[in-house]
Design a protein that fits this description.
The protein has 259 residues and is an alpha/beta fold. The protein contains 7 helices and 7 strands; from the N terminus they run βαβαβαβαβαβααβ. The protein has a single domain (16-248), classed as 3-Layer(aba) Sandwich (Rossmann fold). It has helices spanning 25-36, 48-58, 74-88, 112-135, 161-181, 208-212, 223-234; strands spanning 16-19, 40-45, 64-68, 93-96, 143-148, 185-192, 245-248.
Length: 259
C-alpha cells in the first residue's frame, strides 16, 4: 500500500505507464511497484468501483488514474491512451497484463467461440494496446513494453490448454514486436507459474501445500514476485534486453527435463 514517503527509487521519474487488468492481483502489484519507483500509472479493468478502490490504494489521483472498460475494446484503448496523455503528459511504458480463461476442460471439446474470445483478449488486445501506445509516442523517449504470459505458454497445461496456447502466441508476438520496434522500444515478457491471486485460485485452493511441494522453492508465487521482474524489464537496468522471456516459477521448470 502506498504511503506518504518518497518513492523507493526514482528510476521511472517523469514516466507514465499503462497497466491493463490492474484493479487487483499481479496488475495492481505492478502498478504499485512502478509508483514506488517514481512513475505515474494509468490502470484499467472492467469495473469502475474496483478501479476507484485501487487508485486510492495506490496513492490517489496525483499518481494513479483508473479507466474502466473491456481490454479488447478499441474505443477503451483509445480513451485510456488519450487520458494518460491528457492527465500525465505521455505514455512511456506499457504492461499488457489482462488475461482471461473462461473455460476448463479438454481442448478437443472447447467451444470455439470461447476459444476465439481467449485469443482476442489474451493476444489481439495486447497487440492493439501496443499499436495504440505506439501511435501516441510510446517510443519517443525510449519506451518499453512487458507482456504477461504464463508458464502454461511454454509447457502443456491440461484443462487450460487454450489459455496456454494463447500465452504461447503472446510470447511469439513479443519476439516479433521486439524485432520491429527496436531500437526505440524494447518488448519483453514474463511467464509466471501459479501466483496466489483470485484469477488463479482454482489451481491451488484447498490444496496449496500439495501444489507448492512441486516447486523447489516450496511456495507459490505472490504478485510482488512478478512486479519486481516487470519493473526490471521496463527500467534502464534492462536497456540491452529485448525480445526475451523471464520465467518466474519458483524453479518448477527444473523438473521438466526428468519428466
Amino acid at each position: 500500500m502506498a504511503t506518504e514517503t518518497e518513492p523507493s527509487s526514482t528510476r521511472f521519474s517523469g514516466k507514465t505507464a499503462i497497466v491493463t487488468g490492474a484493479s487487483r492481483g499481479i496488475g495492481l502489484a505492478v502498478a504499485q511497484r512502478l509508483i514506488d519507483d517514481g512513475a505515474r500509472v494509468v490502470i484499467t479493468g472492467r469495473k469502475a468501483d474496483a478501479l476507484d478502490a485501487a487508485v486510492a490504494e495506490l496513492g490517489g489521483p496525483d499518481v494513479a488514474l483508473g479507466v474502466a472498460g473491456h481490454a479488447d475494446d478499441s474505443a477503451h484503448q483509445r480513451e485510456t491512451v488519450g487520458r494518460a496523455i491528457e492527465t500525465f503528459g505521455s505514455v512511456d511504458l506499457l504492461v499488457n497484463n489482462t488475461g482471461i480463461n473462461p473455460v476448463f476442460g479438454p481442448l478437443i471439446d472447447i467451444d470455439l467461440d470461447a476459444a476465439r474470445k481467449i485469443v482476442e483478449v489474451n493476444v489481439f488486445a495486447a497487440l492493439a494496446w501496443t499499436q495504440e501506445a505506439h501511435r501516441h509516442g510510446l517510443g519517443d523517449g525510449g519506451g518499453a513494453v512487458v507482456n504477461v504470459s504464463s508458464l502454461a505458454g511454454i509447457r502443456p497445461a491440461p484443462g487450460i490448454a487454450m489459455y496456454g496456447a494463447s500465452k504461447a502466441m503472446l510470447i511469439h508476438l513479443t519476439e516479433e514486436l521486439a524485432l520491429e520496434l527496436g531500437p526505440s522500444i524494447r518488448v519483453n515478457a514474463v511467464a509466471p507459474a501459479v501466483v496466489k491471486t483470485k484469477f488463479a485460485r482454482a489451481l491451488y485452493e484447498n490444496n496449496e501445500e500439495q501444489v507448492a511441494a512441486a516447486y523447489p522453492l516450496k511456495r507459490l508465487g505472490v504478485p510482488e514476485d512478478i512486479s519486481s521482474a516487470v519493473a526490471f524489464l521496463l527500467s534502464d537496468d534492462a536497456a540491452w534486453i529485448t525480445g526475451q522471456l523471464i520465467v518466474i516459477d519458483g524453479g518448477a521448470t527444473l523438473g521438466m527435463a526428468s519428466g
